[in-house]
Amino acid sequence: MPGLQKKLVAICAAIITVVALSSCDTVNDERIPSLPVNINLSPTAMWDAYGVTAFGSSRRFVPQLHEPSGFAWLDRSAAGYGGVLLVCGINPFTSEAAVPVAFDLSCPVERQPDVRVRMQPTETFPEAVCPECGSVYDVIERGGVATAGPALSDRYGLRRYEVIPANTGGYLIIN
Q1: How far apart are the C-alpha atoms of 65 and 156, rounded to whole Å?
Q2: What is the C-alpha to C-alpha distance for residues 53 and 61, in angstroms, rounded to an integer?
Q3: Domain around 64
Q4: pLDDT reported for residue 7
């Protein structure tokens, strides 16, 4: 059954990608300032402790709030403008399912480093919601695009970061 679920998710992702790419509208995902991002979740043991592996799971990386608990922030570590939201979802560019995807936590409507989206459960997969403006972002299946609120009407999306495999296992989150 898990193999069938992965295939269905991949098919849905492909359909969503085709529809999104054929649309005339564009999403502005660059409203948040581009600040350095460097979170090392390598080797594999570090990924196992702080990564995301279940489809729809998430984790926040916010050095000012010491999140996640127990994570060793190094001098070279950086978490963007408002922190990093790491989720296990669909890569919006390749439609590959159950992969780590990362976003800045700051809401592009509010544009403040301390106004961070929060994950909220839904009937299907969790969504990222801004506590100030109420904008809702699909970070699991649609690459951080807005699905409700002012961000939808203004066509704002969450700033995306790269999640790349590390040579020693695990992943690096960078920009």
Answers
A1: 26
A2: 16
A3: 2-174
A4: 54
Q: How many domains does the chain have?
A: 1
Residue showing tokens 């990362």:
102
User: Which residue type is seen at 120?
Assistant: Q
Backbone angles phi, psi at 17, to 5 degrees: -65, -45
Which amino acid appears at position 90 of this protein?
A: I
Q: What pLDDT was estimated at residue 5?
A: 55
Going edge to edge, which strands form the sheet with 127-129? 118-120, 127-129, 136-138, 145-148
Find, among 124, 116, 52, 50, the residue nearest to 84 by Cα.
116
User: What would the mean pLDDT of 24-34 be, rounded to a whole number?
Assistant: 86
Prediction pTM value: 0.85
Q: pLDDT tens for residues 91-148?
A: 988 999 999 999 999 999 999 999 999 999 999 999 999 999 999 999 999 999 999 9
Cβ–Cβ under 8 Å, residues 175 and 168: no
Residue 3 CB-density burial (10 A; 0-12 exposed, 13-18 middle, 19+ buried)? exposed
Written as six digits, the tokens of 24 are: 């005339």
